[in-house]
Design a protein that fits this description.
By secondary structure, this protein is α/β, with parallel strands linked by helices. The chain has one domain (4-208): Rossmann fold (3-Layer(aba) Sandwich). The protein is 43% helix and 21% strand. The chain is built from eight helices and seven strands. The chain has a seven-stranded mixed β-sheet, sandwiched between helices. Helix 4 links the parallel strand 1 and strand 2. Magnesium ion binds at residues 35, 132, 158-159.
């Protein structure tokens, strides 16, 4: 769909370099699902990470490493990103492109189920968490976010609008229900200051008070 306003914003603020372009092309050929964040979301993540002075970032759902590269590029020299991925094939694809972006020293891919890896991180503190994996466990991912993210840090989640399904009352599958409940919780939880930003599929942004 033509989106001249979106193109104007992305053209000015969210240009992809050769690594990100090559990643998306090769991901298509490789059969990875085309569900990475968009360039404007990548840039929004960079702005948010800069705003909270993020040094330690946690991602749930690596896929091909596209969002990981955007985020790692916003971190200072001593910053790092831990990113969790269930599928070893996705993880090895991501590892290759993260190396190509010369970010391998900053990005640590943990292969496993998010719920298991999150439990293994208990006691650590992050400045931001980006949630972008399966939707059914969103409320548990949020609980982990509240435990692992410092005060003043960020909890961000992709797909907050789920192609519009969150507002279609006829739709009642588990993923849609989970995203709806997540948004309701984010809007109401007094420990959070939150909003959904209407990017292509919606990004929920919450600051931990
Ligand atoms: N953040 C990525 C896109 C992630 S797509 C980007 O924007 O580039 C969602 C990813 O989450 C997929 O790679 C999928 O394999 C992974 N995933 C799904 N369920 C998971 C789980 N329970 N634990 C860890 N990763 C999971
Ligand atoms: C889908 C898209 C996503 O961005 C995601 O994180 C998980 C699933 C999807 O469209 O199925
Ligand atoms: Mg997503």
């Amino acid at each position: 769909m033509a989106d001249p306003i979106g193109d104007y914003i992305a053209g000015l603020f969210a240009r992809e370099d050769d690594v990100l372009l090559a990643l998306r092309e090769e991901a298509d050929r490789h059969g990875l699902p085309p569900i990475s964040i968009s360039p404007d979301e990548g840039r929004l993540l960079q702005v948010l990470l800069a705003a909270v002075g993020a040094r330690r970032v946690l991602e749930v759902g690596t896929l091909g490493g596209y969002s990981a590269i955007w985020m790692a590029r916003a971190l200072p020299d001593d910053g790092f990103l831990v990113t969790i991925e269930l599928d070893p094939g996705h993880a090895s694809f991501a590892r290759r492109f993260i190396a190509r972006a010369r970010l391998d020293a900053k990005v640590d891919i943990r292969v496993g189920r998010a719920l298991d890896v999150l439990a293994s991180l208990d006691g650590e503190q992050f400045d931001a968490m980006f949630i972008d994996a399966d939707k059914e466990p969103l409320s548990t991912y949020l609980e982990w976010g509240l435990r692992l993210v410092r005060r003043g840090g960020l909890i961000v989640a992709d797909n907050a609008l789920w192609g519009g399904k969150v507002l279609d009352e006829r739709i009642e599958d588990d993923a849609t229900r989970a995203i709806r409940a997540f948004n309701v919780r984010l809007a109401a939880d007094p420990r959070l200051v939150s909003i959904v930003v209407p990017t292509h599929d919606g990004v929920a942004v919450a600051v931990v008070r």
